[in-house]
Amino acid sequence: MSPFFAAILFHGLCLSHAIDFTTVYEWDRFDFVWPSGADTSIEQINQKFIPDVEFRFMAVFGERLFLSLRMNDRIPATLVWLPTSGTSTAPKLAPFPSRHLHKQDNCDSIQRAEGMETDTDGWLWVLDNGSSKCPSKIWIFDLLSNNDTTIKRVHQFPDAVVSHAIGARRLCDIVLDKTQDDFLAYITDAESEQIVVYSRQMDKSWSVKTSGKWVSLALSPDREARQLYLRRYGSNELFSVSVSELKNEGAISAAVVKLVGIWTATPYRMLIDSANVLYAAFHNRNYLSKWNTAEPFREQRFHEVGDLGAHWPFTFALDANGILWMTERNETEGETETRHKLLKTEFGVRSYLFGPTASTSTFSFYAIAILLFVCCSVLSGPVITWLILRMRRKETPLMQISLDNRAEMSVSVDSAVYDDVGPENSNTAPPEEARPENPDEPLYADLDPEPLTSADCDYVIVRNPSPEPYEVPLRLGNTNAGKTTNEK
Ligand SMILES: *[C@@H]1O[C@H](CO)[C@@H](O)[C@H](O)[C@H]1NC(C)=O
Ligand SMILES: *[C@@H]1O[C@H](CO)[C@@H](O)[C@H](O)[C@H]1NC(C)=O
Ligand SMILES: *[C@@H]1O[C@H](CO)[C@@H](O)[C@H](O)[C@H]1NC(C)=O
Predict the structure, then answer these.
(1) Which of 69, 108, 372, 485 has a Cα at 20 to 30 A from 137?
(2) Whose atoms come closest to the Cα of 330: which ligand?
């Protein structure tokens, strides 16, 4: 074993404990739990059925995982569930709550499920964009009831809040704000410059004007100064708005959004844990990034895999026990050969809905993590530097070594590059030629928005590019000054 390899392995051992996913299920192709009995519409779908299923959003409660699927007329449901364990083979997708609520263009059915969330009372909130015939809705199911037929709420958005017109709305994602005596939902609508708010207590919705159209969103756990983070439509820009600006129905002035930072790619899924760390998954990227929202914006990669070739490569959710559940979509062999995995990892922190982290176990988890990180940085940095200097003198063909050991090194070396938290660590990253993985790739991908391909919350970008290119100087603070808002 070469000393170089030994050092890299040592560094890798220290860092890779941060993320270690277990595969729960693997699917080569999907099947659904098809209802029995006479149902001609289901037979028609069954004949057209193509097992190409694309997961959108995920929520988890107890022993069940809920997934929204990119809707098309060849699949029998847009919302399905799976058991989190207990089956040896990859399970079939079961329409949730039942096939009866998935009749196309029947407005008493779910038409197109998008963002989802489970609240701490065991209620599942599903955002339904509707269809060309049916307006959009929020569906709330009680997961603790004996069977899933208990629908707690079906709220159809009034035309004044979310347009009933075709092409005038594009509901994407939802987060929940647990207040003293209510649950509020904040919802993005990528077709209009507003944030939609829904109160569970009042069963009422309203919209708050903003300057900008928003796609993905995440809510901070901090109760006093709760921030809603928003990814701007057609861009990599991340903004924030104080939720206090959203709670008042009928506010005349637009809510003030602030630019927080710019991601390396376009995130379609963001989630904040109870310790204020925001996680993001990006279109056409095989990595996940994070940012500690208590600090100035700084994107760090925390998980990276090989080529996936997928537009929506991952979707994830955190459960009440601190387990992160994630799906991975591998489309490299083309759509018909698409493979999926369900992965999980012990995270030790729960979602933003469980409030700011106060538990000692989480604290010690972090203390240990920091200690380990410091130990790794301090010990392995100089070792690597020393070895590199030594090897340069010996003129060892580095490329050969790196190819031999690529499998072992890819994760750890990348983590070292992206995970350099402390300023003291910035000098310890190996020099350019010592990075074994794709040395000609830039450290971060360029900021061009993705050429989006599939029909989702973002796809209009292709036809209707963002009016503001990145070269425009970024405005901080009151970005609405002098702008008229776009009401529909
Ligand atoms: C669900 O429960 C209700 C009452 O608890 C019952 O009337 C209904 O038949 C049940 N439905 C199913 C599908 O089991
Ligand atoms: C949501 O529904 C509207 C109206 O039918 C439609 O124009 C839009 O494309 C839909 N958005 C998504 C993401 O499906
Ligand atoms: C995706 O599938 C391709 C082809 O089977 C494979 O070579 C590649 O390693 C897979 N990617 C991941 C991240 O597993």
Answers:
(1) 485
(2) 3
The span from the CA of 381 to the CA of 421, in Å, is 13
Buried b (16+ CB within 10 A) or exposed e, 72-93: eeebbbbbbbbebeeeeebbeb
Is pLDDT at 456 greater than 70 in this prediction?
no
pLDDT value of position 429: 39
3-state secondary structure of 406: helix
Q: Please give the structure tokens belonging to residue 307.
A: 């080529």
Q: How many residues are recorded in the chain?
A: 488
Global pTM reads: 0.74
Q: Is 342 exposed, middle or buried (0-12, 13-18, 19+ CB in 10 A)?
A: buried
Q: Tell me the domain boundaries of the chain.
A: 21-364, 429-488
Instruction: Give me the residue label for tokens 């569930």.
Output: 81
**305 Cβ below 6 A of ligand 3:** yes
Helix or strand or coil: residue 213?
coil
Atom of ligand 2 nearest to the CA of 459: 13
Winning range, highest mean pLDDT, from 130-144, 331-345, 398-412 = 130-144
Greatest Cα-to-Cα distance within the chain, rounded to the nearest angstrom: 77
Confidence at residue 441, expressed as pLDDT on a 0 to 100 scale? 37
Cα–Cα distance measured from residue 241 to residue 367, given in angstroms and rounded to the nearest whole number:
31
Instruction: State the Cα–Cα distance between residues 187 and 196, nearest whole angstrom.
Output: 5
Does the beta carbon of 309 lie inside 6 Å of ligand 3?
A: no
Residue type at 398 in one-letter notation: L
Q: In 3-state terms, what secondary structure has residue 379? A: helix
Q: Is 243 helix (H, G, I), strand (E, B) or coil?
A: helix
21-364: what CATH class? Answer: mainly beta
Amino acid type, 34: W
pLDDT at 230 (0 to 100): 98
Give the pLDDT band of residue 374 (cuts 50, 70, 90): low
- Beta partners for 345? 324
Question: How far is the C-alpha of 259 from the C-alpha of 264, rounded, in Å?
Answer: 15
